[in-house]
């Protein structure tokens, strides 16, 4: 059993790495590619937000379904396949309206992250949930960072569409790797009623951490994956530059996920969360005042650090908020609520940008950050 679990953890790391590399290899160029195909700022926001809309729609039902049948592995496999199909559609599309559909399909693939996180946490005792989340988020961050860096270079060398085709291949390789994962037995399987879902979803700690994650996700997807690349392109950034900028964000994100538990142990959960969220907000608000790519890169690093510090801690708290039998449902609620930020953030602020200019989207993110800090102060435990 020990050897089987060890092999499964190794395959889990590989599957997770390929999953997120597939999702992010085209991220540095997606919004600029959309603009090149004729998309307005508002439509770019819709394209970016479609990814979050699918997760908002599917993550909670997926968590409920996974708890009901007591299995996680089939959802991981399906998610990797959906990520590949969506990436292929993005690469073949020549009309920006079609990008909305295919970006939504990749969001369906991303909804499987519920099953990834719950299966991985099942390899460890409950008291090590937050530390386990830090490990898997680190692997995910490495995939996102390497994908982002290579995606810009691939687009620079071979064209805008090629990163999408590379993503298709990576997702299929991840699906093959996931076939070897060990499914951990779930002691309790039961039907999750609407009353159960309400009980789990309104657990005070789960609700609070989900809202904070949603507001942090709002800022991340508006800036790092939405309109900071557009701003950088207007400063003269090349496709390779866009990849480098996103990589800087991922570097800050990945490294900060490794140290977040250290600071939470020493400074307290609340103080650590507030510090991370404040860094993210400041990185967003500074963008409209920048006039060179180096400083835009600094803002990207700040955005990554500000996201990487709170995210694993919030994931761990979401699992801690409920009994083990409800974990997938709770994780579905958590990830579904923060997917609202991925959808509503780019979609609404894109319309704001059409009306008041690109700078307005970054200032609005600063206001969102203030709200997130207020929720942490009022609802998150200090330890």
Q: Please give the share of residues in helix.
A: over 70%
- Unreliably modeled segments: none
Number of strands: 0
Order of helices and strands: HHHHHHHHHHHHHHHH
SSE class = mainly alpha
How would you sum up the major sheet?
none
**CATH architecture descriptor text:** Up-down Bundle
Number of DSSP helical runs: 16
Q: Mean pLDDT across all residues, rounded?
A: 86
N- to C-terminal distance: 34 Å
Q: Do you know the CATH topology?
A: Growth Hormone, Chain: A
Radius of gyration: 19 Å
Shape: globular
Highest CATH level, the class: Mainly Alpha
Oligomer: single chain
Strand content: under 5%
Description:
The chain is an all-alpha fold and 383 residues long. It has a single domain (2-179, 195-379), classed as MFS general substrate transporter like domains (Growth Hormone, Chain: A), CATH 1.20.1250.20. It has 16 helices and no strands. Helix 3 (41-69) runs antiparallel to helix 15 and helix 11 (239-267) packs antiparallel against helix 12. The two termini are 34 Å apart. The model has no long low-confidence stretch (mean pLDDT 86).
């Amino acid at each position: 059993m020990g050897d089987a679990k060890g092999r499964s953890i190794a395959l889990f790391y590989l599957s997770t790495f390929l999953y997120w590399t597939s999702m992010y290899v085209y991220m540095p160029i997606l919004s600029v590619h959309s603009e090149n195909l004729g998309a307005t700022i508002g439509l770019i926001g819709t394209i970016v937000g479609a990814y979050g809309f699918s997760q908002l729609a599917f993550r909670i039902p997926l968590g409920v379904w996974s708890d009901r049948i007591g299995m996680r592995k089939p959802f991981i496999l399906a998610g990797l396949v959906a990520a590949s199909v969506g990436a292929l559609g993005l690469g073949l599309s020549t009309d920006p309206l079609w990008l909305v559909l295919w970006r939504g399909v990749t969001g369906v693939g991303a909804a499987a992250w519920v099953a990834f996180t719950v299966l991985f946490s099942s390899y460890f005792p409950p008291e090590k949930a937050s530390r386990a989340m830090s490990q898997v988020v680190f692997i995910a961050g490495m995939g996102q960072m390497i994908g982002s860096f290579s995606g810009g270079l691939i687009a620079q060398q071979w064209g805008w569409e090629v990163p999408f085709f590379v993503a298709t291949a990576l997702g299929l390789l991840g699906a093959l790797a996931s076939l070897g994962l060990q499914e951990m037995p779930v002691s309790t399987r039961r039907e999750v009623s609407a009353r159960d879902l309400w009980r789990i979803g309104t657990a005070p700690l789960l609700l609070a951490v989900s809202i904070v994650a949603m507001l942090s996700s709002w800022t991340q997807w508006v800036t790092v994956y939405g309109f900071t690349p557009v701003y950088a392109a207007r400063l003269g950034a090349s496709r390779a530059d866009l990849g480098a900028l996103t990589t800087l964000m991922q570097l800050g994100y990945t490294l900060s996920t490794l140290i977040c538990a250290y600071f939470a142990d020493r400074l307290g959960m609340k103080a650590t969360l507030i510090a991370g969220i404040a860094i993210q907000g400041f990185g967003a608000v500074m963008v409209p005042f920048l006039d060179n790519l180096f400083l835009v890169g600094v803002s990207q690093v700040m955005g990554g650090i500000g996201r990487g510090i709170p995210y694993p801690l919030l994931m761990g708290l979401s699992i801690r908020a409920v009994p083990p039998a409800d974990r997938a449902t709770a994780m579905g609620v958590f990830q579904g609520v923060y997917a609202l930020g991925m959808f509503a953030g780019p979609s609404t602020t894109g319309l704001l940008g059409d009306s008041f200019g690109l700078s307005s989207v970054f200032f609005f993110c600063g206001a969102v950050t203030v709200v997130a800090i207020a929720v942490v102060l009022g609802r998150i435990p200090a330890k």
